[in-house]
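Supplementary notes for students who missed Thursday's class. We covered one full example, reproduced here. Read the sequence, then the structure, then the short commentary at the end.
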Amino acid sequence: MKKKQKQLKDLFLLDPNITFLNHGSFGACPKPIFDSLVKWQKLLEREPVKFLAFDLFKYLENSRNSLSSYLNCHKDDVVFFPNPSTALNTVIKSLELNAGDEILSTNHEYGALDRTWNFISKKKGIKYINQYISLPLKSKDQFIEDFTKGINDKTKVIFISHITSPTALIFPVKEICDIASKKNIITIVDGAHAPAHIDVNLKEIGADFYTGACHKWMCSPKGVAFLYAKKSVQHIIDPLVVSWGYEAENPSHSQYLDYLQWQGTNDMSPYLTIPDTIKFLHENNWIQIAKESRELNIWARDQIANQLGLELIADENFIGQMSSIPFDFKDQINDQLEFYNRYGIQIPFFMWNNVPLIRLSIQVYNDEKDIHRLILAMKDFMNRKRI
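Structure (token representation):
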């Protein structure tokens, strides 16, 4: 392990007895960023009324300013949420949809959001379509051809992941947003895995709505996500929880901010760590870290596939720091727990469209030894299941 990599690994609070190959689920927070969280929590507890009633919104503005610069958007077009699911529920439940309208998505979406759309579909009589994307995925043209077959006159919204959760694939969301814009279709991008994993330039992507997690690949404390909305669609948004920002006594310049920034008493200290989080990423050249982690991931998935005789589901151009690989198991929860308890490796199992997958995540604290350990464990696990 390189000296710089070792120094960064030592900053993470992870259990040294566990081989952690699951950064993608909830991230992992380095000590300097965690210290920033504690700093803000202590400031809150020192004078809670002053902090929450008088100072909080200027602190939030400072965080939004840092985040918007990082994502290339305006600070008043982005607001904080505890997770992408809550942010997307806010958008989805605000949409004016009528019976017969169609929502076009893919068959690779995050299960919680599939459930959200199914809930809305039953309420409003709309149709949620999980368009089939053929695998192995080899080109953007292949993806776009598969996906756009689902567009018709009833399509009102396109909902698509930037990086998929179960299959760990990077989708060409800019191209899809361009197509949708020409057809006056609203675009909602689930970018939970994207920030600090790949470049996210919101002006270039052109989505109407975009959400991302900061607590995943940006390594912020848990419970930090954001919602971006173009100014042209911000008036659509209703508050998920109606609070003081609705019909505000002292409204700000933005109804969008008024509705969403205060929805009841909550510890917003994690949101306020974002300037320190981004500073940490810049100081440690995280663009290079992500590049090197991706290279290790590509090498790792090739080694796993070659040594275990497994098929890859996509060309490496669709892969970042995560890879999902078909892996034979029978019981997702129990087999994952058995794998963890037997081998001391934290890695998720997914049952996706009846295809069992294991998803590998690579972060700065991982190295080739972790991959060799994983391969030995996978071989042993497969042999045990054959007995």
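Commentary. The chain has two domains: 3-21+285-386, 55-273. The chain has a mean pLDDT of 97. If anything here is unclear, bring it to office hours.
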